[in-house]
Amino acid sequence: MRKKLASFMNSKYILIGLSALCLLFIATSFFTDKLTTPLRNAISTVVIPVQRGMNYIGLWISDKYDTLQEISTVLEENKDLQAKVDDLTEENNQLKQDSYELDRLRDLYELDEKYPGYNKVAARVVGTTSGNWYSTFTIDKGSNDGIEKDMNVIAGGGLVGIITEVGPNYAQIKTVIEDNSYVSGMLIDTGDTCIVKGDIELMDTGLIHLSGFANSVTVRNGDKIVTSNISDKYLPGILIGYTKDVTADANNLTQAGYLVPAVDFGHLQEVLIITQKKNS
Amino acid sequence: MKRKIGELILIIFFYLLQVTLGRVIAIGGIKPNLLIILPVLFGFLHGKNEGMYVGFFAGFFYDLFFSGLFGFTSLVFVYIGYCSGIFYQKYEETEMLIPLGLLLAGDFCFGFLSYVGNFLLHNRLNAMYYISRFILPEVVYTLLIAVILYKPVTFLNKHLNPTDKRRISKVD
């Protein structure tokens, strides 16, 4: 009986101890990240290389899966071509993967040409957040490669987001579609400023909020929105997306609507980081 | 000691699966929450202390590369592990529905608390939308994964600790 009581008390004490420890973590991380940064750096040296490998395996599996699905339809249609299909499958897989990569790299190269004024570093996306609420990405370049906080990130023709955290071999990108993201934008032709704001409730539509246009401004569907020159973190002139359904607000002073992001956030694999910062 | 290290490796493995393969297996943008499965199962299979230990480290990794409040997930997972451990003495490991029920309740509570902390306090009052679009799909997907993982984890649990105290106390 005494033993039972002892073990009972024991686990209660552990519970209280661990709760206190967690609360301490929460309290310190509320004010400073001095405590978490060394922890992250230490663990990232072990975890990030493995993550890089596993991410590659994951993409490989999904590529393979897609290819297999295609092959099964071909088999149904052409039973007499079975033998030939089998022969070509293996070669096909490899070539497909190569060509996907080639396409992506070509796109990146074109983008590189589009914003020639800035120096850029390319990186691979190796992970996302654990939860479903935010779509922060982890990339495989860090302070060792010259990445710093507040650098802008672009991909596939437009703005992805901004670097919020840097470790020796990893960095994190806060994307413009995230719920707590605000970017100052402007119409590319007239320079009228507006605010681009992420919203998780619009996730299924693929749109984000656009607001703060003065009422006198004429905005048509499909107008290009770029980062504005009054933003203190984003470099001016990077394409964010295209306007959609901008209408007058109830106060009749401002206009608001939606924005179609230029970047396909669902299939982001490589990004470019602009190594020049706005304030420097 | 061997057991603790084994569990830690398992947690890191699940964490890596979560952040890398999560994106590939997501349905409608919803990833299953693999890390919450561990404290529930280990609490149920090996008692409160084990559940709390696993919960603490699983939550630690969950929060590690996210710039929000560090330690919140740990706190919730520790309590989930503890609650799960209450049922350790009372049920056999073949009663799979008990841990699944615990997982359902735990994941829902965790999702709801995350919603309160991240959105409700920022004046997002549309709770039904968040529950039906994010929390419930995640719970269902996680339960599905847990059904698949239950046997392997019980096997590992036995393997890590050949002398299970519960089985011995059942004999006398």
Strand and helix map with partners:
The complex is a heterodimer of chains A (280) and B (172).
Chain A: H1 2-31, H2 36-77, H3 82-114, E1 120-128, E2 137-139, E3 152-155, E4 158-166, E5 171-175, E6 182-187, E7 193-197, E8 208-214, E9 224-227, E10 239-248, E11 254-261, E12 270-274
Antiparallel strand pairs in A: 1-2, 1-12, 2-5, 3-4, 3-12, 4-5, 6-7, 6-9, 7-8, 8-11, 9-10, 10-11
Chain B: H1 2-25, H2 37-46, H3 48-64, H4 72-86, H5 97-118, H6 127-160, H7 165-171
Helix pairs in contact in B: 1-3, 2-3, 2-4, 2-5, 2-6, 3-4, 4-5, 5-6
CATH topology of chain B: Arp2/3 complex 21 kDa subunit ARPC3
CATH architecture of chain B: Orthogonal Bundle
Radius of gyration of chain A: 24 Å
The stretches of 5 or more residues of chain B where confidence is low (pLDDT under 50) are: 167-172
Provide the residue-averaged pLDDT of chain B.
86
Structural class of chain B: mainly alpha
> Radius of gyration of chain B from the CA trace?
16 Å
| SSE succession of chain A | HHHEEEEEEEEEEEE
In total, how many beta strands of chain B?
0
CATH class wording of chain B = Mainly Alpha
InterPro entries (chain A): Cell/Rod_1, Cell/Rod_MreC_2, MreC, MreC_beta-barrel_core
Function (chain A): Involved in formation and maintenance of cell shape.
Family (chain A): Belongs to the MreC family.
Protein name (chain A): Cell shape-determining protein MreC
